[in-house]
TrEMBL record:
Organism: Polypedilum vanderplanki (Sleeping chironomid midge)
Record protein name field: Uncharacterized protein
Region (Disordered): 1-132
Bias kind Low complexity: ranges: 1-123
Amino acid sequence: MTTKTPTTTTSSENTMTTTTPTTTTSSENTMTTTTPTTTTSSENTMTTTTPTTTTSSENTMTTTTPTTTTSSENTMTTTTPTTTTSSENTMTQTTPTTTTSSENTMTTTTPTTTTSSENTMTTNNAHDNNFV
C-alpha cells in the first residue's frame, strides 16, 4: 500500500504547482491512494496534477482525489486522473477537479481510462458510468 500526500502551497500571487504522484507496479493486491496538490492563492494560480498510474495483474483498487483550487482570479486547473490497466478485478474511482473562483476560471478534466479483461467497474463523477 502506497500513500502519498504531495505539496500544499499557500501564496498571495504567482503560484505554479506541478505534482506527479505515485506509480506502482505489482503482481497482486495493490492499493494506491493519492491526494494531490491543494493550492490557495489570491491571483495567477496554475495547478497541473497527473495522479496515479497503476499496472497490476489482479486485485487492483485505485482511488484518486485530484486537485482542489480556490482562487479569486486567473485560475486554470488541469487534471489528468488515474489510468489503470489490469487483467481482473479492477475498480477505479475518480473524483475530479473542484474549482471555486470569482472570475477567469478554466477547468479541464480528462478522467479515468480503464483497460481490463474481466470484472471492471469504472465510476466517474464527471461523466456517464460505463460497465464492461
